[in-house]
User: What shape does this take?
Amino acid sequence: DTGVSQDPRHKITKRGQNVTFRCDPISEHNRLYWYRQTLGQGPEFLTYFQNEAQLEKSRLLSDRFSAERPKGSFSTLEIQRTEQGDSAMYLCASSVEDQPQHFGDGTRLSIL
Amino acid sequence: AQKVTQAQTEISVVEKEDVTLDCVYETRDTTYYLFWYKQPPSGELVFLIRRNSFDEQNEISGRYSWNFQKSTSSFNFTITASQVVDSAVYFCALSEAVTDKLIFGTGTRLQVFP
Assistant: This one.
């Protein structure tokens, strides 16, 4: 059990560019979650996968955001045409049913 | 709507003091879970405890204890004999029984000074 892994740890990009983050959940965890955390706030739910199916999306997830989990293992979160307001820590978590979520270290996104 | 309130933004204590972090929640669900997570300066959220809505029994784990009271919709966390390593931001969270998505409070930053 190596824990939830996120890559990259930090991403700096110019406004308007596209970025993609990757999350590798704990092996055998069929549930995967993405959250966003801004400075001084708690994490906010973005989306949730059970295996490869995306079962829920927050209203926070605008049409510039897309998440995938093609084979029910790792997941990617893409932000197109980044804006200043997208600067945040993006957290991934995984779990199995009826067990608590375990979080990765997050990807910190900074928009110049 | 579901909501978690952590009214204490920041708490500072001296090592060995006891400290209680408050958490008040709102939900219309009858089945739900409550959580505490710790976020040290490194950034990773560390799971501490989960309680379901049907279990109001208080829990103790070493220097940590949790008091769940449905009558006041509170789930408070006490650290006994605090240590410098306890310095972190602590988040209380609520989840529905079905989707498990977490609703977090704004966190309480605890600073323990030597």
